[in-house]
């Protein structure tokens, strides 16, 4: 833009100046009249003017001229009064339309890096708006792997950061209250928070179980079935901070290959087994079926309250120690003396010990007190495996 005769800002050259005079004096011309006065004038052919012609006047008004259906029309866009506060020097700027940047341009103000304008440059103007120019506060902004020095105006942290192009959304983490005045902070750190999903293939561990085998020597073990890991597709909802995953949650899982459990055969060949399956009568007079019975020396032991066992459970009355190669852990048992004069009762194999492993005892029964252990002593027992 440039100014002509200090009265007009000519937006378009040439014929625009001719039309400007008509606009200023409020005249209305038709194409026909113009053609009669001068066949050579630019007004003789409306095709010579493709767009409206605009002229900015000294007070900020914009005069507009255009041809419509061979008719010459004029209009005036009234200027808005903008209050410009430049370091306390206040004046009024007339401008019909545009942004804060246009206000500064009209006032011939160019900002250096330390100066700021409020509201921001891109703000559309409106009547009686106040535009302030002053020295911004120097702060450091750490974001997106970079550390920048910025001079900022007063305003909410989130608004100012967005105006500077940092574009903070609701999920992002800022080390200051997003709605506080940014002048209350000396440095700002922005951590970007994103959410996504990932699907990966994971293994499924197989379980290891045991079973007895009279084809394997007593005290020995053998892999009966080799364990094979399974596979599954796992979908997770993930949270990322500055590109690094900080948490995830499984939202779906699908098995694509089932695992094969490993079976360990525990040798019983040569073990003292007095017969195979049968039945016995328990202390309550019930007839109970058993899969096998072991006959041998039984002992008793005690331990402080809360003491652990080989299987991890606390020691308790009814939990007994065995050789797991003969009687697997977890086996359900019924124990009584071979002559039927003493009954320990129902029990579970949960522990082991040296006497069990060297074969000097077939079972070691837990009691809560030492006196109970003395009462049991050492005696020959039948250990019925019932489960």
Features:
mainly beta; Ubiquitin-like (UB roll); 5-stranded antiparallel beta sheet; about 375 residues; disordered N terminus; 6-stranded mixed beta barrel; 5 domains
Question: How are the SSEs placed, and which strands pair?
Answer:
Layout (H helix, E strand, L loop, with lengths): L2 E2 L3 E3 L4 H10 L6 H7 L15 E5 L4 E7 L2 E7 L2 E7 L2 E7 L4 H7 L8 E4 L11 E6 L1 E7 L2 E7 L4 H7 L9 E2 L12 E5 L1 E12 L3 E10 L3 E5 L4 E12 L2 E14 L4 E8 L8 E4 L5 E4 L1 E10 L17 E3 L10 E6 L5 E9 L2 H4 L5 E4 L3 H7 L2 E7 L2
Parallel strand pairs: 6-9, 10-13, 15-19, 22-26, 23-25
Antiparallel strand pairs: 1-2, 2-3, 3-4, 4-5, 6-7, 8-9, 10-11, 12-13, 14-17, 16-19, 17-18, 20-21, 22-27, 23-26, 24-25, 24-27
Strand order of the largest sheet: 22-26-23-25-24-27
Percentage of residues in DSSP E strands: over 45%
Sheet bearing the most strands, described? Answer: 6 strands, mixed, barrel
**Molecular shape:** rod-shaped
The class by helix and strand makeup works out as mainly beta
Write the CATH architecture name of the largest domain.
Beta Barrel
- Going by CATH, the homologous superfamily of the largest domain would be RlpA-like domain
If you average the pLDDT, what whole number results? 85
Helix content, binned percent: 10-25%
**With helices defined by DSSP (H or I, 4 residues minimum), what is the helix count?**
6
Distance from first to last alpha carbon: 100 Å
Number of strands: 27
**CATH topology annotation of the largest domain:** Barwin-like endoglucanases
List the uncertain runs. Answer: 1-49
**CATH class membership of the largest domain:** Mainly Beta
How many structural units, i.e. domains?
Answer: 5
Structural Rg:
48 Å
